[in-house]
Amino acid sequence: QVHLVESGGGVVQPGRSLRLSCAVSGFTFSSYDMHWVRQAPGKGLEWVATISFDGSNEYYVDSVKGRITISRDNSKNTLYLQMNTLRVEDTAIYYCAKDVGVQAWSYKYFDSWGQGTLVTVSS
Amino acid sequence: IVLTQSPATLSLSPGERATLFCRASQSVSRFLAWYQQKPGQAPRLLIFDASSKATGIPVRFSGSGSGTDFTLTISSLEPEDFAVYYCQQRSNWPITFGQGTRLEI
To answer: Are the beta carbons of B94 and A61 separated by less than 8 Å?
Structure first.
C-alpha cells in the first residue's frame, strides 16, 4: 500500500528557513518522479516543484525559484523540500505527491498524496 | 497556462447529473487531469489524460475534451461526491491547476 508522510512543518519568521521531508513506502521510490504541491489556507492547489526519479532534473514554479530546492535520497525513500528566505505568502499546507508514470514515462499527474504538513510564515 | 473552471459553485441533489467545465488559455492537447478534494483531506486523482480513469474511481465519473475545453461529468451524484474539484494541466511548465469548482448539496 502506497504511503507518503510529510513532516517538518511549523511556524517560522519571514526570511528564515525550513526543511520538509516526505517519507514514502509501498512502492519503488527510485522509479518515480516526485512532486510538492501546496495549498494556502482556504485557497486552491499550487504546484511547487518536481524532481525526476533519479534526481537529475528539477522544475520549479517561478515564485519559489532561487529560494526553494527539491531533492531526494533514494537510499532512504525520502523526498525533501529545502525552503529558504521564507515569505508570508509561502504559508500553506505542503503535500508531497507521487507521479502516475514510472521512470522516463512520467505523466506529471499525482496519483498518491501525503496528508500534508502546515507551514506558517509569520512574524 | 491559465485554467478557468466553471461554475465556481454548483448546487445539485443526490441522483442528479453534474457537469463541470475547465477551459485552458491555450491548447493542452489531452494533457489534463481532474482531482476531488474533501475538507481536511488531500486531493484524489479521478481522471488523467482528459478521459482515462484513475485506479478505483467509480464508473459514474467520466472526463472528456481536448485542446482548450474539458468536461468532468458525474452521471448520478452520490452523497460522498460533494466536494471541491480541480483540473490540472501538464502540457507546459509550470504545471497549473484551475481555481476549483465547489459541488454542494
So the answer is: yes
